[in-house]
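Readers of this paper often ask what the protein records in our data store actually look like. Below, we set out a record of this kind in full and without editing:
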Amino acid sequence: MCILAAGLSVLLMSLPLPALAAGPIETGLRSELRKKVLHEREIHSAASLRDAEADGRRSYSFLTVMQVSAPVARVRDVLTDYALYEKLIPYVSKSRYDPKKKTLEVEGGLWNYRLQSTVRFREESERRLAFEVIDGSFRGMVGTLDFEGVAERGSLVSLQGSQTGKDFPPKFLIERGAEIVFSFAGKKMRDLIEERSRQAGGSSNEYPQPQRKF
């Protein structure tokens, strides 16, 4: 574990917090993958395009999971600051969010392929954002962005999406290319979040607190 993560663990262990029960992101990981994500800090990204129907329709899905040494509130604040993506990630050339419509216009590319999508978000809870691509590339795709507190390790983040259709970009682009982009973007955003958390001093009121019933 890196020095920053180790320091966070020491800080969390000194706080009067109960152990958090494993949430749906953590429990959904296979044991070997859980070890890689939580202990080795691997950013797991996987994407797959496969035949789905006899009429030529195919099924595309992707999943990215990472651990971030920062509280959920901070992780969510940074990951939903969509203007940051075009500033930090070279694969993204445009990332413009309309708060009234709750839509994001995003453009980018890899290996001379250019993609453009309009994404609409819906907040299902403080820990989950649902999304749907309503125009452009991958129109009809749906998915979620989930956040989860993890005892002594900050947060887990999961981004997943799926779509069934006939017209997709080349297979290598949306499988291997997507894995490269998601992993790179995850690392850049995680570095930023953890740096901001370090600069904030990791005050105790940032970290997950037990729910109180009255």
In short: The longest strand covers residues 113-125. The chain has a mean pLDDT of 82. The two ends are 39 Å apart (CA to CA). The chain has six helices and eight strands.
